[in-house]
Design goal:
mainly alpha, 2 helices
């Protein structure tokens, strides 16, 4: 994309330089035209040099024709330059809007990531709390199980003693 912009800019600069040269040449032609007109006026005063006037008039007409062609070419170049500038402007606008869209998308994704990180941290905290609660419940159940086993053992001992006492009686 940058290479295309660079190529378009180079073409614009080249056409702009050409346009300036054409303008300079037009100015030179215009200056020459003015000089030719002055020369023609002088020639009209000097009737003896009438043949030179015809040549200068022909040259002037040729220069006028060249000038008209250059003016048309210059107008065409200006139109082309404007088309290229408009195209470049549209491309730059498109590029800028794409960059803005990408920035917005990155911002949205960053916010979503941040929210997910917060959710993960919250889940980790809850998991840690549940793990501690589970450990505490396991410890309590282990103590109750040990107490139950002790009571079962004591019950069996007492039952055995009871049975033994009944036999003795």
């Amino acid at each position: 994309m940058e290479a295309e912009f660079s190529e378009i800019r180079n073409e614009l600069e080249s056409r702009d330089a050409l346009w300036r040269r054409i303008q300079l040449e037009c100015q030179q032609l215009h200056t020459g035209l003015l000089k030719i007109r002055e020369y023609k006026d002088m020639q009209e005063i000097q009737i003896k040099h009438q043949s030179s006037c015809v040549q200068i008039t022909e040259q002037l007409e040729n220069k006028n024709a060249e000038f008209l062609l250059l003016a048309q070419s210059q107008e065409h170049q200006r139109e082309e330059l404007n088309k290229i500038r408009n195209h470049l402007y549209r491309e730059e606008q498109s590029h800028r809007s794409e960059q803005e869209r990408m920035k917005t998308e990155i911002s949205d994704l960053t916010e979503e990531l941040h929210q997910k990180e917060i959710a993960i941290a919250t889940i980790m905290e809850k998991a840690s709390l549940l793990e501690r609660q589970l450990k505490m419940e396991l410890e309590i159940k282990d103590k109750l199980l040990a107490k139950q086993q002790l009571l079962d053992f004591q019950y069996k001992v007492i039952k055995s003693e009871n049975t033994h006492l009944k036999e003795m009686v």
